[in-house]
């Protein structure tokens, strides 16, 4: 189940940030205009730092490991039963007027507003993206590592589903949005935690999505 199949989410991930004015540009040219998340928040992608700054790291259900072709990945430290909370993902709401996309929108989410009649419309002026507090202290034994989780490779299958944790009808600039990742099935020890980012995500690799 990919992110676009999750019912009642108010935010959906996208790989492009307001590209309507860049129709004639290639993906490569568009991506070059954005700041690289690894350069803005280098500590977010440093396993040593993340381990040291995660209280009770040894008691987490998951651990971080470098993978040959994906970079950092999130893995099950022990068997995780279906429907158990695995990890969290924290983002901040930005107005496009005051926003510089990171890594071509690689970590960004589209923002939707729910009207009184239940209809959901896209907030064209807003987006949700990682920020300086995306990585923070874990909630109990559940880390905020959602931004580090990868898509499944061809020999893998996604094993978590994404649900909104603090749902609101309307999100304002500066609001914090948190997603929770629940095990979609039993996850075996040392299995990588994976999910599909959605059909709009621009990939330069093969995945089982």
From TrEMBL:
Protein name (record): SET domain-containing protein
Highest taxon of the lineage: Eukaryota
Lineage of origin: Eukaryota, Metazoa, Spiralia, Gnathifera, Rotifera
Pfam families: SET
Domain spans labelled SET: 60-198
Signal peptide (UniProt feature, chain positions): 1-20
Keyword Protein biosynthesis among UniProt keywords: no
PROSITE patterns recorded: SET
Keyword Signal among record annotations: yes
Keyword annotations: Signal
